[in-house]
Amino acid sequence: MSTDVTVAQSAPGPRTGRRRLVKVLPEDARRHNKSLVLQALFPEAELSRADIARMTGLTRVTVSDLVGELAEEGLVRELGQKESKRPGKPGTLLSINPYARVLVALDLSDSETLNGALVDLSGRVLSRDAVTIGGAVGETAVTATIELAQKLVAVADRPVLGVGIGTPGMVDADGVVLHAPNRSWESVPLRERVAEALELPVLVSNDADAAARAEHSYGGRAETVLVVHVALGVGAGLFINGKLVHGHRSAAGEIGHVSIQDDGVLCACGKRGCLETFTSVPALRAQLDELTGEPTDLSQRAAILSGAGEKLSRVVAPLVAAIDFDEIVLSGPLDLLGGDLVDSVRENVRMRTRSAFRNDVPVRTTDLGEDTVLLGAAAMVLSGQLGVS
Amino acid sequence: MSTDVTVAQSAPGPRTGRRRLVKVLPEDARRHNKSLVLQALFPEAELSRADIARMTGLTRVTVSDLVGELAEEGLVRELGQKESKRPGKPGTLLSINPYARVLVALDLSDSETLNGALVDLSGRVLSRDAVTIGGAVGETAVTATIELAQKLVAVADRPVLGVGIGTPGMVDADGVVLHAPNRSWESVPLRERVAEALELPVLVSNDADAAARAEHSYGGRAETVLVVHVALGVGAGLFINGKLVHGHRSAAGEIGHVSIQDDGVLCACGKRGCLETFTSVPALRAQLDELTGEPTDLSQRAAILSGAGEKLSRVVAPLVAAIDFDEIVLSGPLDLLGGDLVDSVRENVRMRTRSAFRNDVPVRTTDLGEDTVLLGAAAMVLSGQLGVS
DNA sequence: CATAATTGTTCACTTTATTAACTTATTGTT
DNA sequence: AACAATAAGTTAATAAAGTGAACAATTATG
């Protein structure tokens, strides 16, 4: 049996013909085990050292040692004694100290406004900030991003663990935005730029990927989840076995331009009947704006949203069959996605994939409101810097 | 940056609400590094200890130590001196000794015949065997499988590393065949049964998954690949970032019963227009058998195969967009899949997903002939026992 | 022929986790 | 109240893993 293990290491090089061979040192094993202690405590748990030892399989001695280090760093604190009805010395309860560090999280997915927040280790938003860029693109958008991050860092009254950024566009493993049309970004080394300006660890990923990570860390905590992020376009983030899927050329999740109707309307990409021409926010608003508000229009509205859901399900159903997700989550404006649309997706996916030997996959809208991408950006930092997810 | 690392460990428990926390010991790190040496040598490479040290980042001292152990186990052998034009002591060339062990590989995907082979460490088939079961199902099929494995073990003139089995049906992580209709298997603990009978390590997976693994290990060696296995049904195996995707309930890859045409013919599963009603081997043969062989029928044949490819692409295109595979491979009877069918899949996937910012994904038929599943079964053993892939 | 370069090994050392034993603290029983 | 049983957390000795420094062996080059 082999088990996946995440070990923080130096940045990987390019993938050439030969597969990369990455050594593991005892010190990497220790970093992993230290993360394990944090992971055990992460879901607001209060556990004793002995509890953690049982959960991880490490000995009490080792756990004590690891907890000692984490306590010195301020990340873990003792809460007091565990009251119990059983004989034996009562354990000392431990928990993560959510105020030990803050994270800077940026959501760049809106076209007009860049949103940012200071977030504590438990995912609570401590303060918010935003800059209006009014459609600014290119270098201007980069400096606006840096300034927003700097303002948030200035507000922090605690050590900043790092900066997480969720941005539209394709992002590679080194945090380079390969292609983001609404920002006119082509191969912009966003991670490097922000890291140089702030002298902090910076992590960048696609906004849909961030949304997926948020669901994995703060939402249903599913290990294998598909998040469909409906905004200007339609993007997907895939978490499979607890890991984000980047794809061969960092283009995973780009489902907005799958053609699902050969005689559909012409899309900006040059193809016909792309998913985005049916189910993106602009496409939906345009259709709904034509309605007047009369009684008959109510069922018209339902028909439009159901139709969009049906179109989305043509893309989602094959994914469900092929990957067997724990759940499917829709994120974006809930006034559009909730109700008829999500119901239609659920029903149509069920119709296309139902089987006597597999339960229907749950399909729901996000519970994280408008902060999905922001929380995902925060979770990136937690995962990257502390190995917690 | 975090890097995936495979570490052999004891069998995982059930996935309950809480995530599993798996410790890593220095000894696991060593097992991993030892596998790294084998991985470096696996693609028929002849390398010196110093070469391996450079490739892995381990020191020459450590590599020497690991090579020493592997040599003692007979897995690695010295070939002689490396001739070079540069100054310095010439290195001692090492290679894997493909004859150090044999593997037993079984392909149970045919309905009439169970096929098996002895395979060496380089994937060469040393001898074959088969049993005709004539549609036998249930316990009879299990004992036939065990007998075939035993016959092959009896022929082996070297230590047997393990037994790999590719079988139709859904298979869970413990090698239990949850559901295989053509064998009438429901929750059959195939791995356990064979392991008890042979007292050898046994690894079981779905036939499409095995095919995917074969492409990953012996075919294009892509890290992220979709293999569509067309046989009695249509199944898919997904390798993502070098790891097989099992899915939430071991049902990943079950794409045969995605409905792609609402008014299609009724499928055995109860839905209409399932992919299998168009593109499985029986469905294709049935359509082709109606042709007489006259000139007009030649273009009819092309139309039938192209149509089947177009249907398949409706399922594959969303997967390509969502996961950004290195390549797509079709496996199964090449007289059906080659030519018009694969061309149609390639073209239709391209039509539905093409983008200015992503190259078209290569779509091809397997190079591994009829042995895809067999070689995948062998690769499972290599991966599971030696950490080589 | 001397020098530089390269391979592979030996040795002393650091890091990591383990087992065994011990201290401390609590419950339950006589 | 005394004592046994149980459990948590710590201390100390030990085993395993990889490293750097130094060295011997071997080759090309000027």
Written overview of the protein:
- 2 copies of one chain form a homodimer.
- Chain A has 389 residues and is α/β, with parallel strands linked by helices.
- Chain A has 3 domains: 26-96, Arc Repressor Mutant, subunit A; 102-213 and 372-386, 2-Layer Sandwich (Nucleotidyltransferase, domain 5); 222-366, Nucleotidyltransferase, domain 5 (2-Layer Sandwich).
- Chain A contains 12 helices and 16 strands.
- The first copy, chain A, has a 5-stranded mixed β-sheet with strand order 6-5-4-7-11, with helices on both faces. Chain A has a 5-stranded mixed β-sheet with strand order 14-13-12-15-16, sandwiched between helices.
- In chain A, strand 4 (102-107) and strand 5 form a beta hairpin.
- In chain A, helix 6 crosses helix 12 (372-386) and helix 9 crosses helix 11 (340-353).
- Chain A is globular, with a radius of gyration of 23 Å.
- The interface between A and B is large, with 90 and 89 residues.
- The structure holds a DNA duplex (30 and 30 nucleotides).
> Which of globular, elongated, flat, extended, rod-shaped describes the shape of chain A?
globular
According to CATH, the homologous superfamily of the largest domain in chain A is: ATPase, nucleotide binding domain
Biggest chain contact:
A-B, 90 and 89 residues
The amount of beta strand of chain A, in percent, is 15-25%
| Number of H- or I-type helical stretches of chain A | 12
Number of domains of chain A: 3
CATH names the topology of the largest domain in chain A as Nucleotidyltransferase, domain 5
Mean pLDDT metric of chain A: 91
Termini gap of chain A: 23 Å
CATH C-level name of the largest domain in chain A? Alpha Beta
| Oligomeric grouping of the chains | homodimer
Tell me the structural class of chain A: alpha/beta
Task: Give the fraction of residues assigned to helices of chain A.
Answer: 25-40%
> Gyration radius of chain A, to the nearest Å?
23 Å
